[in-house]
Amino acid sequence: MLTFTHQDTLREVSTPAGVLRYHEAGDGPPLLLLHGSGPGVTGWRNYRGNLGFFAEHFRCLVLEFPGFGVSDDFGGHPLLDAQRAVAEFTDTLGLDRVDIIGNSMGGGVGISFAINNPERVGKLVTIGGIGTNIFSPGPSEGIRLLQEFTENPTRERLIEWLHAMVYDPALVTEELIEERWALASDPAALESARRMYGKAAFAAMMAMMRRADVPMPWAVMHKLTVPTLLTWGRDDRVSPLDMALIPMRTIPDAEFHVFPNCGHWVMIEAKAAFQRTVLPFLTG
């Protein structure tokens, strides 16, 4: 398997909205990898363990969303800025058509891009994080812990949240904690996170989505026309498994794969099985 370093793969591109940074590795058709949200997250940290595998088949582009401490902050709601960033990024790089892997929030961003630009997306893979709670309470345990950290960021609350992300607590190492804490405690990253997960901001977002003239994201998934693979950790405490029911049923061309003994980070916690599942889907 190919190996890459952070610095060797780091690139940046200027867009009308600001500088976007990304990691690039491999040759072949373009594969856009979109990260999730949460304290100390980056695209590199989400996908560094998968980059060598997929770079043997694709030109991998790991985009760093604005507002998470790597790319420029566009200054708006991080979810809306991420949607804008994908359009700016693909336009600026001249990418006419891409396959997409999106983790959690990144999956939702990928769905939005594919609905609005169906001719520009070949296939789409999502990793948890989409749909809506059917049987489980909402917000979920992981989202509540994320909100609590955002309101009062302490190292202890970060550790609690990290444990909610995984099935195997051994994955929450001191190295992971320190790596995440360094970026999660950055004032600029915290300010951006509060636009999304601060309790007031989260309540305002939910109120907006309850308006009759604004459909909930899960209510428009029937408009997604590209072949889609939904992947999920059976033991996800951030986006519980029942959230997959509506996407699985309403996306016209959707496959669904569940990984046992696995939390929210499928591409990390079930890495080999995830790769074995996703590659045939993308290349078949």
TrEMBL record:
Any Gene Ontology CC annotation: membrane
Keywords: Hydrolase
Coiled-coil region list: none
InterPro entries: AB_hydrolase_1, AB_hydrolase_fold, AB_hydrolase_sf
Native organism taxonomy: Bacteria, Bacillati, Actinomycetota, Actinomycetes, Mycobacteriales
Protein name according to UniProt: Alpha/beta hydrolase
One annotated GO molecular function: hydrolase activity
